[in-house]
Amino acid sequence: MSRTAVATIVKINGIDVYYEWYPSRDGVRTIVLLHGFLSSAFSFRKLVPLLNRDYNVLTVDLPPFGKSGKSAGYEYSYKNIAATVIALLGELNIENPILAGHSMGGQFVLNMITLQPSLTDKIILFCSSGYLKPPGRLLSFGSRLPLFHLAVKRWLVRSGGVKENLKLVVHDQSMIDEEMLRGYMQPFLSKQMFHGIGRLIRDREGDLPPEALQKIDTPCLLIWGEYDQVVPVAVGKRLQGDLKNSQLIILKNTGHLVPEERPEEVYKHMKNFLEG
Length: 276
Prior knowledge:
This protein is an alpha/beta fold. The relative contact order is 0.15. It has a single domain, classed as 3-Layer(aba) Sandwich (Rossmann fold), CATH 3.40.50. The protein is built from 12 helices and 8 strands.
């Protein structure tokens, strides 16, 4: 974190929201970065210093991830979390932000635009999730059982833990070092994290359907990794077709975690899009 960064937790819509604010200079616009599933603002640590040369940057830990709240009384739907981020922007007096989301964070960006179409004039999606259905009836029922959080924890352990999941999202696995492992492991040291993930599974709606996407006319940049195993390039191409004012850039020899793997290239494409 830079010396000028401000890290704060505020209560928005009944939940604690952790954010990091990186001011650049007066009069410049603010880029809001939203992370994906099982992640946090940590995933943008390489991209933030580059963007901060030209823009204010706001990173947010989306509930229930990172250092944000995991309250049992909060609704973890896309729509409600999107509304919470919009409320945070209002609390911080940030007008006309540039919204950027990675993976599941892309769905939050799209939901924010659907809720408030005039919120921004530019959006950026990094390997955004798309076209996923809501959880099935059995999973939805199971998520309401008292010990479901233990099943979530067991699933993560059986999948190989944080290291094996990083191997899935990063194409060049040699870049997985101790700093990266510690950063992505940290949120899971909280027992409440597994309760929060269980509630997210319960509350999550399906991704926005094509008819909703086709109503979005905000200019959109799609940045994808050529070897994304989590959200394949085919999803990016489909989103490009449904988002009528969008362009797609595919990064060679890159996996799902594009802000980690290609920060310089991502910054360059973002700046060209925003200033072009």
